[in-house]
Amino acid sequence: MADQEYEVPVKVVDRRWWANQDAQGQATATSETSSSSRKPTFVEDLEAQLAEKDRQLQDAIARYRQAAGEGSERTPERPPVPPQQTGLPSDFRILE
Length: 96
Known about the structure:
Layout: H1 2-5, H2 17-23, H3 29-37, H4 41-74, H5 83-86
């Protein structure tokens, strides 16, 4: 009986965004935006850094492809190297 006198009501709030999303069933567009705002700030910072690095990578890939395209236009094709100069047997054929 002494336990019943001092019983304190306990309230538990689960703040894990992924657990709340699973408990609600399928997420709607509004819950997705609210769950992303409930992510820890360091996770949001990491996601922002990831997006920036992805943009930089796409820019670098585009510049490389442009430079590679310009390089192939101005660089003449090299003639094939005779087998005697490659150190390979004379009956060895390089497939193109």
